Amino acid sequence: MRTYLILGLFVWGFMACQTDTASSDTSEAEQTATTNNTNLTDSIVQSYQQQLTAREEVFPLECNPEAGKVNPADGAPKDTLFFLFREQLKTIVANKDIFALLPFVSENIKTGFGAEGGLQDFIRMWELDSPDKIPNSTLWPTLESLLALGGQFHNYDKAPYFEAPYLGPCWPHTAEPYEFGAVIGAGVRLRSSPGLSTKIIKTLSYDLVEYLETTPTQETIGGETHPWIKVRLADGMEGFLYGKFYRSPLDFRAGFQKNEAGQWQMVLLVAGD
Predict the structure, then answer these.
(1) Could you give the CA distance from residue 98 to residue 44 in angstroms, rounded to a whole number?
(2) CATH code for 180-247?
(3) What DSSP element (H or E) covers 155?
């Protein structure tokens, strides 16, 4: 089935073309990755070290529980091959390269909590079935934001499994996922009303907040359009966050495991509960 899907997309693509902080975490990650990955070639190790130090944002390797917070964490650097896989996947997503993406997706990828699933449903769900739809698919921004938010390793079905983003693995058990969300940034401004010109009432960093509503007010900043979200803090203060900096633990998340050939693939991309 995968062969036919890839061939079909190749034909579409061909036709379309014709028509026109951080240092300690890095050190610890390198040591852990070396322990977890044996018999790696020098070129792989060198590439890993280069990409590890080139990261724009560095999260701690492990979740750091703190009252009223959902602190970010990224355990990916613990595994050299997975880290390189994820960095390559980020590049593929940034380039919207459907041909490069497909080998990174499991034939049996889970796309929902019902009967849906598999590569064919994945392609249909994300509108990747024709060249004119592919560049505008919401898959690309979904994966871009998701992959930027770290994650954690754990065992699933007796095999190593990486879950992204960090919100799921680091979520406090005392907070109901349907009622609460998290600020996914440092120095995020809470405003008195939706809009950039309104009063700043507080600055938040990775705070756990109670979700109240998604307002009809949307704003485009830096080429991205998001709604304003009304939230309530633990002290009862209410305000509005720009949607880019708010995320629910029930938003899209991805799971990654190795296939029978030992290659990492995305095996899950779902939202909800």
Answers:
(1) 25
(2) 2.30.30.40
(3) strand 152-156
